[in-house]
# Entry
Amino acid sequence: MRHGKLTPPVLRRYGFILAFLILPVALYIVFFVSPNLQAVQLAFTNSRGISPTFDYVGFENFTKLFEDGVFWAAVRHHGVILLAMPLIALFIALFFSFLLNLGGGQSNGRMTGVWGSPFYKVVFFFPQVLAVAIVGVLFQAVLRPDKDGILNSALGLVGIDPIGWLIDPNLALWTIIGVAVWQAVGFYVVLFSAGMASVPKEIFEAAALDGAGRFTLFFRVTIPLIWNTVQVGWVYLCIAAFDCFALVQVLSVDRGGPDNSTTVLPLEIWRQAFTYYKFGYSSAMGVALVFMVLTFAALTLRVTRRERIEF
Amino acid sequence: MATQTVPLKTARAGARRRPPARGGGPGVFGGLAHAALFIWTILTIAPIVYTFLSSFKTNAELFGGKSLALPENFHWDAWGRAWEKSHIGQYMLNTVIVVALSTFFTMMLGSMAAYVLARYRFPGNRLIYVLFVAGLSIPPFLALSSLYKVVDNLGLLGTHTGVVLVYVAYSLPFTVFFLAAFFKALPDTVAEAAVMDGASHTRTFFQIMMPMARPGLISITIFNVIGQWNQYLLPIVLLPGDKQDKWLITQGIANISTSAGYEADWAALFAALSMAIIPIMIVYVIFQRQIQSGLTAGVGK
# Structure
């Protein structure tokens, strides 16, 4: 195939390429690329609602943003979620996937999971397929602050007074992190189980044969062997920590309350846009969020670069 | 040497007696392991079972200080009220239509683009691929206002067409990224043989490459179905409050929870919630293996 010579096969080939690309690319540009570019443009305007007239205001939205207490509260909450949620979820998931895949000890010289493993995997994974909005409504009932909320009535059986899970400003964010962990764990149990299944069983058996106890087997053999999968899971949970929109919007009191103690950036972006119609200001927040996510991603790539164990 | 042989011997002896005698003994460990797993099972199931049972209760039973008790008798009337007032059926139907169409077009357009980008060299290939993949790192929140404007300008605000088109566009980065890797890994020989036999490019794609890529296509289809079914942000932006008959299941459920607070019909709320959960549960139990591998494939790669 020479360049410049448009023989019928070459024409057909380019026609085919064009025909296959035109629709997906057009759709993607109209509904994804262009809105994102326009958002960056809007961030420097005082645009309000769908009104077509607006003025460029330079960095005014950003200076306002840096003086906005709610914005900083949201950033702080992302920090807390980012530190706590992935760690808790990953630890629980690693522990369970260890039990379900290797915790049964040896039978006939082979490592097995504890009895009933397939059942547990099916049950634990289920919250993952529920929509976050549904999980939010579900937990509104579970976490009701009065003595009839299901968690409080269960705690009442052992003599604990009702706890204001979602109405105590010091507790509400942790409650939401707890619900996020509740939903996430099963997914990572399955992910890590797949990771453990891809490691040759002989390695675990050899370790056990060499006298490794269960703690050694867990911390010094299993976790290093599936470290790659753990990292992937960690990055994925961190990305989720920058979202949390649906959970906070549906579950928290007053959408981000009480008193902004649970609010997150996506929620504020949505609120500024569709409650106050401050499209310009909302887009500036969006730019700040993207900046944070990309900075985080770049840092992660630097830190987590590590030799993977070949087997 | 000597230090190595000793534990080896004991371990072998232990292995013969089945349970290795370490880590506090298998009995204790096994017991604790089962206790931990059992507690998590309860934590997972209890909220769902509670919701289901609560749909049969009266408000007196729900708030009488014995909310853990079983309902005294099973009234189904809350289910009737929920079905009539909450429009769950309508929302469910809307969601099925939207998700079916958008997943279909996502997979169709996504695999077409991915195939061409993965297997044909032409000027601009790299640019288009990078444009798609870059979309993976942009959170959907950046473009909320401008997306609203774009969809409104096209006259598609509050229509299912608008939602479907936006879902497809937002699902393309991941779909193209994953499927391009998949098409690239397919052997060249089969495609070459097809071209030798005079098959057109289009025919090679639909009759040879698509069937070969089936495992990947199934995983990504499941991934997209669940992702789009659970989407909450885009519906509440694109289907505003005055278009309630167009709403999707997630925004419907979220709205019921606010209105149940005003009307104090809690049993109906639980009934509506159960109606939203049960179909998903049935689908999950039937396809749990495919769903698990489909969703984790998205992250594992």
Summary: The mean pLDDT of chain B is 82. Chain B touches chain A through 109 residues (CB under 8 Å). Residues 266-300 of chain B form the longest helix (35 residues).
